[in-house]
Amino acid sequence: MEKIRVVGGSPLEGTVRISGAKNASLPDLCAALLTDEPVVLTNVPEVRDIRTMGRVLSALGATVEFRVGGTVEVRTSDITSIEAPYDLVKTMRASVLVLGPLLAREGRARVSLPGGCAIGDRPINLHLQALTKMGAEIAVEHGYVEARADRLRGAEISFETVSVTGTENLMMAAALAEGETVIGNAACEPEVSDLAALLVAMGARVEGAGTSTVRVSGVEHLGGARHQVIPDRIETGTYIAACAIAGGEIEIQRCVPGHLRAVIEKLRQTGVRIEEGPGNLRVRAPRQLQPSDIRTLPHPGFPTDMQAQYMALMTQASGTTTVTETIFENRFMHVAELERMGADIRVDGRTAVIKGSTPLSGAQVMATDLRASACLVLAGLAARGETVVDRVYHLDRGYYRIDEKLRGLGADIERLT
Ligand code: UD1
Questions:
Q1: Which of 21, 52, 208, 343 could be 232's S-S partner, Cβ–Cβ 3.0 to 4.6 Å?
Q2: Domains in the chain, please, with CATH?
Q3: pLDDT tens by residue, 91-121
Q4: Which residue's alpha carbon is nearest to atom 26 within ligand 1?
């Protein structure tokens, strides 16, 4: 199993290029199931979750061609299977994004229930309730969701909790449904808007993406399209945090600062200097980080996917920081590992109180999920001595070559195979 070894103490300098957004590419790839014409996506990050989605789509009968440089072409002239099997879904919950498009195009879908994951119980009840309102008959049997519908009908749906993939699944289902679907309390994440842009390019009628009400008027047929995926805002935030914790000054290229407004504002409050250009950011670390509390929220609030990395940073702030996780119940798995490196953190329910600044010392640590592993790499950049992060496959699910990108910025980091 691969590991990453980081030796702390080298300030970062130079430039880093942000890859395409994993969480936008995943629904975009699934949208290709809605048409028998080719869908070509560019700026797709070559990370493990994308390969996994390629396998899910291939299992359904799609031809998925990965080309160098992040272009992926998906052709689904025929759907030969309507089943997303357990073996694939259990490794990546986002596989559930095939449910909406399969049901819309084939009138049938069989998708394994994702089950639990390292960051808590993550049900898909909201996806199922919404599709039921659109006329689908849904049964859960033998660990699988079995869904059927002659043709989905537009409906008024208001999500009781904001769900990103729930909103995306529904938008795809509604694109080929009969009549208008109004999605209330919709997720406003930039990835939802990216999917809407692709659907529109395919001939769908979608309005309001990026706001809390999305309207989709179903059409009979969708065609092929070519679409460029947005840059990854969480990867962008992670490199800002990396510079802030390691020290130094870097330029982050090919990003959209407007997609991570809450992260930029928060990091400025901690003393990080961030200058915004069109599609780039200049980041300068402060001599001393200041504490500043966060509360994770749906977009445009502070993203839960940046919570772990922010916590690593706050171990080095001069005072006490409170981090409140409101999106997931059990997203503090990184705390125990940070403590092994010398952090002083107390967790009470959904709140963590971090007492800074404590010197960190390198240790052997275990990655538990994607963002937790990024947090441990960041802590390693600030720690005295050597940190070895085990289970790097978590990191590779969502970060394109993080070791190479950080090494390009001057970090002392290598992958041990
Ligand atoms: C997406 C992102 C993930 C991010 C999360 C929150 C992708 C592929 N993944 O995950 O990186 O951390 O948004 O920003 O885009 N919920 C229910 N029932 C449901 C669906 C969700 O109770 O049917 C709850 C979840 O348990 C959670 C909250 O709603 O507490 C938000 O989850 P959701 O937005 O659905 O997360 P994902 O779309 O799975």
A1: 21
A2: 3-19+231-416 (3.65.10.10), 22-228 (3.65.10.10)
A3: 898 999 999 999 999 999 999 988 656 656 6
A4: 122
